[in-house]
Specification:
The complex is a heterodimer of chains A (about 350) and B (about 260). With about 350 residues, chain A is of the alpha/beta class. Helix content of chain A is about 35%, strand content about 20%. Chain A has eleven helices and eleven strands. In chain A, the strands form two sheets. In chain A, strands 1-9-8-7-6-2-3 form a seven-stranded mixed β-sheet, with helices on both faces. Mean pLDDT of chain A is about 95; it is low at about 350-355. Chain B is an alpha/beta fold and about 260 residues long. Chain B has helices at about 25-30, 35-40, 70-80, 90-95, 105-115, 145-155, 170-175, 200-205, 220-230, 235-245, 250-255; strands spanning about 10-15, 40-45, 60-65, 85-90, 135-140. Chain B has a five-stranded parallel β-sheet, sandwiched between helices. In chain B, strand 3 (about 60-65), helix 3 and strand 4 form a beta-alpha-beta unit. The longest helix of chain B has 13 residues, at about 70-80. The model of chain B has no long low-confidence stretch (mean pLDDT about 95). Classes of the chains: A alpha/beta (about 350), B alpha/beta (about 260). The interface of A and B includes residues 39, 82 and 331 of A.
Chain lengths: ~350, ~260
C-alpha cells in the first residue's frame, strides 16, 4: 500500500476525470423520502457534479454491478439437427466510486464465494477484474452495525481508498492502476500531522457507532435455538417479499432458468438472484416445499449469514450495513432478531439452570 | 422442426373477448421485434382483431374479459367445450377486473348511471371466467405482459412446464433499484401482488394495484399491519385491493 494525501478540490478533479473517461457508477440522490431524508443509490455517473460525495448510504448495495440481478449464462443455437453453445464473459471495465468499507468487505466476501471455491465463476471474475473500486470512509449512521461484524475497516479489495481528514483526503493506494491515474494529479506524501489526523478520524468513526449487535458465539446460539419460537414470531411478520436479499451486499443465492426463444431456433440459460425468503425457494420438482413456513425461511437466511459461513469459513457473511433492516417493510432487522434470540437464551439460562453461586 | 426432440406443430388458437377493452388481445399483435416468430408458432383460427376468418376448430382458446351477461356464459361454455386448453387471458378474465367496480353498487343504479333509461341486460357482478368454466392456465395482467405470453405459448408448443412467478412484485422492484413507494408515503400492493410485470408501475412511481392478483403464500395480516404502522390509510388500501378484484377472499376475510 502506498499512502498519499490530496486536497479535496484536487480529489474531485481526479474523480471527475476518471468518471468522464469511463463507464462509472457512484452514489446519487434518487429521491427524497417521506420525512425529507435523501435517498441514494449507486447509479451511472458521468461527472463529479452528479456524485453525492457526502452521501449517507445507498438503499441498495453495489452487488448487482458485479453480480447482476439477471445474467445470461449461455446461449444455445439449434441448426441442421445439431446444437452449439455460446458463452460470453464480456465485462466492459467500470469504475465504482464511493463504496464504504462494509461494501468493500462485502465484495471481498463475494470473492471468497465466487472465486475461492472449487468452481470459480468466470462471469464474476471477468466483472471483478474489470472493476476499479474507490472507497470512502464515513461516520456511521445510527443503525450501522458493521463494527460489531468487524467490517468497519478494510485493507484490501479496493484500488483506492479515501479517508476524510478535514481539508484533505488521506489516500490508500492499493493498485498500480490507481497509482498511475493519480500521477497526473497533485498529491503529497502524508506528513506526521496527516497521519495523526487519520488516526483521529479512525478513532472518531470507531466511537460513533450507536448500534452494537453481539455476535460473539452466535453460531452456537443459533445451533441451540434451532427450534426457538422466535423464528415463528419474526416469521409471522415476514412478507416473503425478498427485499432483504435484493438490497443485501452479500446475498448471492440464485435460480437458473432456461427458455426456448420464440423462434425455437435458440434458447438461453439465465441466472437470477433469488431470495431464501421467497415462498418457492426450497420447492422441488413434484411440488414438495422443504420450507413452507415463513419462519423457517427467515431462520435459514439468518443461519446462512451468521452461522454457516462462521462454522465453515471462520467468518460471518453479514457485514452489518443494515440495508435489509432499513428496507424491510415488516420491521425485521438483524439487531432485533439477534437480540431477541440472545435474550431468550439468557433468560432461559437464568431460570432453568441458575448458576451455583446464586442457589 | 424437430431439433428439440419432437415435431412441433402450429398451435391452433382462438382468441375471444367478453366484457373488456380488448387491450390484452391487442398485445398479441404487439412487440414487433419477435412478432413474425411468434405468429409462426400459431395457426390462428379465430381472432377478430387480426383476422376475418371465423373457424371453430381451435385447440387453444385465449379468453379475455370478465363475464357480466347471461349470454356470455353460454358462449364461454361453448368455447370451453371446443378448446383442449383454455387460458384465462388478462386480469378481467382471471379476477373480474376493474369491471368488478360495479359489484359493490346495486345493478339498477349502475345501469341508470351509465345507460340512463335504456334497457340493459347485465348481472349484478362482474365474474372471473373460472366462476363458470374450468381454466387450464391463467395469464394475468392489465394488460398482459407480451414477453410472458410468448414464453407461455413457447412452453405450450415445446411441451415445457408453465409457471408464473410465485413471489411478489417487490423482488422485481428492488432489482430495478426503485425507491420503495411506502418510503414516499404511498400504499403500494407490491408486497402481496404477483410479480412477472418487471415492476412496471412502481418503476414509473405509480403504486402497484395488483393487476396480477395475489402472489403465492402472501402474508396479508402483516401487510395490513404495515399500512397501519406507517400511519397510512386503510380505506385507501381497501380501495386499491378492490380495484382489480384480485383480493376478494382477503377483503371479505377482513370483514
Amino acid at each position: 500500500m502506498i499512502y498519499k494525501v490530496i486536497s479535496k478540490p484536487e480529489f474531485r478533479a481526479f474523480v471527475d476525470a476518471l468518471v468522464r473517461a469511463n463507464t462509472s457508477y457512484g452514489p446519487r440522490q434518487v429521491d427524497t423520502g417521506r420525512n425529507g431524508e435523501p435517498i441514494y443509490q449507486f447509479m451511472p455517473v458521468s461527472s463529479a457534479d452528479e456524485i453525492a460525495f457526502d452521501y449517507t448510504v445507498t438503499a441498495s448495495s453495489a452487488k448487482h454491478l458485479l453480480m447482476p440481478f439477471r445474467e445470461e449464462l449461455s446461449k444455445f443455437s439449434f441448426r441442421d439437427g445439431n446444437w452449439s453453445q455460446e458463452v460470453s464473459y464480456d465485462a466492459p471495465p467500470i469504475v465504482l466510486f464511493g463504496l464504504r468499507p462494509c461494501d468493500i468487505n462485502a465484495i471481498n466476501l463475494l470473492d471468497e464465494v465466487m472465486l475461492k471455491g472449487p468452481y470459480p465463476s468466470p462471469y464474476y471474475l471477468a466483472r471483478r477484474k474489470n472493476t476499479f473500486i474507490i472507497g470512502m470512509d464515513h461516520l456511521p449512521l445510527p443503525d450501522c452495525f458493521c463494527k460489531s461484524m468487524n467490517r468497519h475497516t478494510t485493507d484490501h479489495g479496493f484500488n483506492l481508498f479515501a479517508s476524510d481528514i478535514g481539508e484533505k483526503y488521506f489516500l490508500s493506494i492499493n493498485s498500480s492502476k490507481a497509482f498511475n491515474f493519480l500521477k497526473e494529479f497533485e498529491t503529497a506524501d502524508p506528513t506526521y500531522e496527516d497521519d495523526c489526523l487519520l488516526i483521529e478520524r479512525r478513532k472518531t468513526i470507531k466511537q460513533s457507532f450507536q448500534t452494537n449487535v453481539e455476535v460473539t458465539g452466535l453460531p452456537m446460539f443459533l445451533d441451540l435455538e434451532f427450534d426457538s419460537p422466535i423464528w415463528e414470531k419474526w416469521g409471522d411478520k415476514c412478507l416473503n417479499c425478498g427485499t432483504c436479499a435484493m438490497v443485501c451486499p452479500t446475498c448471492y443465492c440464485y435460480n437458473v432458468e432456461e427458455h426456448v426463444e420464440t423462434g425455437l431456433g435458440s434458447s438461453s440459460r439465465e441466472k437470477r438472484l433469488y431470495s431464501c425468503n421467497l415462498v418457492d425457494f426450497a420447492e422441488v420438482t413434484g411440488g414438495h416445499n422443504f420450507r413452507p413456513k415463513n419462519g423457517d425461511r427467515l431462520k435459514y437466511r439468518y443461519y446462512h449469514h451468521y452461522r454457516g459461513f462462521a462454522v465453515n469459513d471462520n467468518q460471518q457473511i453479514c457485514v452489518g450495513c443494515n440495508r435489509c433492516g432499513r428496507a424491510c417493510l415488516a420491521g425485521i432487522n438483524p439487531k432485533d432478531v439477534i437480540n431477541d434470540l440472545r435474550l431468550e437464551k439468557e433468560s432461559c439460562m437464568t431460570c432453568v439452570s441458575p448458576s451455583p453461586q446464586k442457589s | 422442426m424437430n431439433h428439440l426432440g419432437f415435431d412441433i406443430e402450429k398451435l391452433k388458437i382462438g382468441s375471444f373477448d367478453f366484457t373488456c377493452c380488448e387491450g390484452c388481445q391487442l398485445q398479441l399483435a404487439n412487440k414487433e421485434s419477435t412478432l413474425p416468430e411468434f405468429l409462426a408458432l400459431l395457426d390462428i383460427r379465430n381472432f377478430r382483431e387480426i383476422s376475418s376468418e371465423r373457424l371453430d376448430d381451435y385447440d387453444i382458446a385465449l379468453v379475455e374479459g370478465s363475464i357480466t351477461r347471461q349470454d356470455e356464459v353460454e358462449r364461454l361454455k361453448a368455447i370451453r367445450a371446443q378448446a383442449k386448453v383454455l387460458v384465462a387471458y388478462g386480469t378481467c378474465a382471471c379476477f373480474g377486473g376493474m369491471n368488478a367496480q360495479k359489484n359493490k353498487f346495486p345493478k339498477e343504479e349502475c345501469i341508470r348511471t351509465v345507460y340512463g333509461d335504456k334497457q340493459i341486460d347485465t348481472m349484478q357482478e362482474s365474474h372471473k371466467i373460472s366462476d363458470f368454466v374450468t381454466v387450464d392456465y391463467s395469464i394475468p395482467g392489465c394488460p398482459v405482459n407480451k414477453e410472458e405470453v410468448e414464453r407461455i405459448v413457447v412452453s405450450i408448443a415445446t411441451r415445457s412446464p408453465i409457471a408464473l412467478p410465485k413471489y411478489p412484485v417487490c423482488v422485481e422492484c428492488k432489482q430495478r433499484l426503485n425507491t420503495c413507494l411506502f418510503d414516499l408515503g404511498e400504499v403500494c400492493l407490491g408486497p402481496i401482488s404477483r410479480a412477472g410485470c418487471d415492476a412496471v408501475c412502481p418503476s414509473g412511481k405509480t403504486v402497484c394495484l395488483g393487476c396480477r392478483g395475489p402472489a403465492d403464500g402472501i402474508n396479508y395480516d402483516s401487510f395490513v399491519q404495515l399500512v397501519k404502522d406507517k400511519e397510512l390509510s386503510t380505506d385507501e388500501m381497501n380501495e386499491k385491493l378492490a380495484f382489480y378484484n384480485g383480493f376478494t377472499e382477503y377483503l371479505n376475510h377482513e370483514g
